[in-house]
Structures are given as C-alpha cells and as structure tokens.
Amino acid sequence: MISIANNNVESADRLLRNLSQDGFFGKESKWLNAIRDRVDTTTYIYESALSIVNTDYGDNKVIYQISNLLLLIYVDAMKIDGQRLKCILVSFIEGTDEVPSSENLTSYKNYIVEKAKLDESIKELSASQSINLADKMTLGNDFAAHYSSAVEFVSKILVSLIQIDSLIGKKDVKLARIEGMSTAEKLNYLRKSKNCDWNFIVNMVNKNVRNAESHLNFSYNPESERFIGKYFHRKRGKYVELSISAEEFIGKTLKGVEAVILGYILSNFMLYLSAEDRYKAMEIVNLMDKELDS
Predict the structure, then answer these.
(1) CB neighbours of 32 closer than 8 A, spacing ≥ 6?
(2) Which of 143, 149, 148 is nearest to 245 (CA)?
C-alpha cells in the first residue's frame, strides 16, 4: 500500500525535476538534473555538495561552520546508535510509518521554488530603469514572506535535531510529540538541552522577528526602507513594536535562517560521502577549509 506521504514525495520530486530541466533554478541545477540518471548516487551527492560550496551565498563561512558542527554531533550520535541516526536523517525526506506527513521534500520544493522566484524578481527590478514605491513594497513583502517560509522549513529541520538530541541523551521522545511543537517550543527545547550545544542553530533565528511574522505582524515599509511589525513580549504581557533596516533583515536575519537550511543539507551530503567515498568528502572539506581559513 502506497502512503499519501510517498505520493507527496514522488509528486514533489517530479515537479522539482521538471522545473530543473527547464532551467528554473539556474544552469548548475539544470546540469545536476541532467546527470542525475547517468551517475551513481555517490557522484550525484558529491556534485550536489560541490554546487553548494561553489555558489557564493555571501555567508558561506557560516554555512560551513553549521555543517561542521552538525557533523560533530552526528559523530556523537553514531557512537550510540548509527542505524537510528540514519533513520532520522532519511525520514526527514521520506517521512515515517509513525508520522507519514513528516516527509519534507514537498516543503523543500515549495521553499526553493519561492526562493528562485524571489531571485528572479530581484534581477528584473535591478535591470529596471526606475523602481516605484509599489515595486519596492511588493519586493519587500516578498522578502518577508520568504523569511516566513524559510523559518517554517527550519522548524522542520528542528524536528530531526530534537530526535538526534534525544538519541544522544538516550531518551525516547515520540516523533508525533515533536511534530506538535511550535517553532518557539522546538527552539527552546534545543536551547535548554543538556546533551548538545545547539546555540549555533538556535541563535540564527531572530526570535522577535519570528514571533512577529508568525502572528502576521511583519511587513515592509518602502518609505522608511525598514521592516516593521509587532511581537508579543511575554514578560511585559503586551505587544512591542519592532523595526529593522532592510539591510540588516536581508543581509543578516534572512541569511541566518538560509544558512541553517544549507548547512543542514550540506552536513547530510558530507555524512554520506564520508561513509561512501572519503576521497570525495576530503575534496569538499579542503574547499571549505580554504574558505574558512581566508
């Protein structure tokens, strides 16, 4: 019997493949899709990891640091139960029998399609002779919406990280319970962990901006060129005004959650390559070290 989750995975995979074939995600993605059925899995994952390392995201060092720190935690988890760790990481994409809806390829598809559309909008406006206030407002709010989607995807990554934390702590935390947590609850769970130091993940998510956007109280003001909103301050028991410059939001706040996503994906690629082809893994490591040492 084919589960709904498996149907979603296959549907999302087909859509991603078709969009990639059409060059929707750029030339490199189109090339990766072209070789997908012609090379073995190890080579494909190596090329996928290489595509992340060879792309300038503006914060590659942060991405590599997140990936490396996650790998150190994976090593600790493997010492306890390597098979369980593998199941956790694989279920992130495919879901589980316990919670079929926990598959995340569909969410990843939505996230990268939205990001590609946003990148295209930026290119179009950059090529425009003049940008009016309405265009600025639309683009700014598109950035706010993209941040919301990025945080939602990070929230799904947090499910895997809580499972890994529980594995290391030798606790049995049901996936359904973790899935039922809010993003704030997941972040607090990891923040308070005595098993691992997850601050390198938790601190990448601006809790005030996340709080504001989760309550639909976050938008862009083109006149002041600032993102504004309100977040609920628990200690004060009331909403507090929030204002952040476009430069800080796009260059730091948004980049932070995107770095978590890319760092997590890269760490999975590196874990696989370390087991299947250490030579290819070391090639990627050397490229990252070169960037980190610069």
Answers:
(1) 20, 44, 47, 48, 51
(2) 143
- Interval 246-273: pLDDT, tens: 999 999 999 999 999 999 999 998 998 8
| Cβ–Cβ under 8 Å, residues 105 and 5 | no
248 vs 90, 134, 251, 262, CA distance in Å? 35, 21, 5, 20
Q: How many Cβ atoms from other residues are within 10 Å of residue 287's Cβ?
A: 16
User: Could you tell me which of 273, 254, 253 has the C-alpha nearest to residue 265?
Assistant: 273
101: its two tokens: 């809806």
The DSSP H or E segment spanning 293 is none
Q: Are 9 and 95 in contact (CB under 8 A)?
A: yes
Domain limits of the chain? 4-292
Q: How much is the pTM?
A: 0.84
Residue that the structure tokens 């862009």 belong to:
220
Query: Three-state SS for 129?
Result: coil
C-beta separation of 90 from 104 below 8 A: no
